[in-house]
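Field log, afternoon session.

UNIT: design team B
ACTIVITY: writing a sequence onto a fixed backbone
BACKBONE:
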């Protein structure tokens, strides 16, 4: 019931980043409407599949497919192998599918792990990245934004005389997929699969307030050595006894700044979409968060200003407690599977 100590070793498959996630929706056009308001850009359509991208280097970060049986499904996340050697190493892990062409913009190859609990994990390699101007952040909301003035320093006055902060309504454009995770009935077995085979290492582990030897939540990062990575790319929550099957809790997407966060929140609210929780700031990871429900009921998050860590930051273990520094009260159904009614 307590998570074992985890370290990265060269024998494990080294992954460099998360690339994209897969979903199936009953009403693909309704989701497409939501996706635009959420800040995705449609990269390409191929039949009943839409590839959505952010403004990062990945050709797409969200694959939306029309559900054949009308029920919403999560198809797992895809991670980029650090090299062809690492990709071939992944193909030798028990349960790996044979490599096959990766459908969608950018090409490449993919290996899929179909887990016994009905979830999926994918490893890709050879996909062609988008060319990105990292000095320019695309926006649908900012007419002009300069540096931030503080009580004792006014950089905007010194550097940009006559310029003012100016904004207008619009969606919060997505940069990339940041993380996803499960409420997991097979918590210990799945934790072992991910951390034994890949360079996935917990940044923070939380244990039950009444049962100190029961770890209930793990925020897991990609260990890139001295290179910094997001505080977590993947997370796992131990499912309560009443949960019948493992389900995705939420997927999360990075945006640029706090103004974008609030403007995006207002845009989604005015469009009539369902807010779940936010805007607020998390404790672990420090992200400014904003959670919504898509038309299928999947929870989906905007985040900004998240922590980054490297190998010098050791795993921390603490009691499970409040998960926000500030923001609205945590909804009672925040941990629930909001797609359950549509799947019955």
């Amino acid at each position: 019931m307590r998570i074992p100590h985890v370290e990265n070793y060269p024998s494990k498959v080294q992954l460099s980043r998360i690339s994209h996630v897969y979903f199936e929706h009953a009403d693909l056009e309704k989701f497409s409407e939501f996706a635009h308001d959420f800040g995705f850009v449609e990269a390409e359509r191929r039949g009943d599949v839409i590839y959505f991208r952010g403004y990062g280097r990945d050709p797409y970060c969200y694959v939306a497919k029309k559900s054949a049986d009308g029920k919403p499904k999560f198809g797992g996340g895809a991670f980029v192998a650090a090299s062809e050697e690492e990709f071939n190493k992944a193909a030798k892990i028990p349960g790996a599918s044979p490599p096959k062409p990766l459908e969608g913009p950018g090409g490449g190859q993919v290996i899929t792990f179909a887990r016994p609990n009905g979830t999926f994990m994918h490893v890709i390699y050879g996909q062609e990245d988008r060319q990105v101007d990292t000095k320019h952040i695309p926006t649908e909301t900012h007419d002009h934004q300069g540096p931030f003035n503080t009580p004792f320093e006014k950089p905007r006055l010194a550097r940009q005389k006559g310029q003012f902060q100016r904004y207008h309504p619009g969606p919060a454009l997505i940069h990339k997929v940041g993380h996803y995770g499960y409420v997991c009935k097979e918590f210990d077995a799945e934790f072992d699969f991910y951390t034994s085979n890949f360079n996935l290492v917990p940044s923070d582990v939380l244990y039950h307030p009444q049962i100190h030897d029961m770890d209930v939540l793990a925020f897991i990062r990609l260990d890139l050595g001295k290179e910094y990575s997001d505080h977590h790319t993947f997370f796992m929550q131990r499912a309560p006894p009443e949960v019948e099957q493992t389900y995705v809790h939420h997927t999360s997407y990075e945006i640029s700044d706090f103004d974008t966060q609030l403007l995006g929140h207002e845009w989604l609210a005015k469009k009539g979409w369902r807010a779940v929780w936010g805007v607020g700031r998390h404790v672990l990871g420090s992200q400014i968060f904003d959670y919504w429900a898509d038309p299928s009921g999947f929870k989906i998050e905007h985040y900004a200003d998240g922590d980054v860590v490297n190998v010098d930051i050791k795993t921390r273990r603490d009691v499970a407690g409040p998960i926000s520094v500030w923001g609205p009260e945590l909804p009672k159904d925040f941990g629930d599977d909001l797609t359950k009614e549509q799947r019955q």
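LOG NOTE: Helices lie at 28-38, 84-91, 155-159, 187-197, 258-270, 340-343.
NEXT ACTIVITY: expression trials, pending approval
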